[in-house]
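Contributing new records

If you add data, match the layout below exactly. Sequence lines come first and carry their own label; structure lines follow with theirs. Keep one chain per record. Anything else will be rejected by the validation script.
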Amino acid sequence: MTTTARQELRDALEQVVRRFRSMTAQEIKVLSQQLAGGTRTRRSNPLLDSLARGRVLKHLAEAALPGPG
């Protein structure tokens, strides 16, 4: 991997982390529900909250990082 590619990757990852950290819990929940096809849950628990955060973080990373190829 070239120095330029590494820097671009680092910049993209930093952007993803900044965007994710700036999101409120409600924004994460709403986006997670959208990504899951509108699935709603009545209750919140640590496992569901972690899954929602993971789903949103994965989505942000996939949007910011170039795919293989």
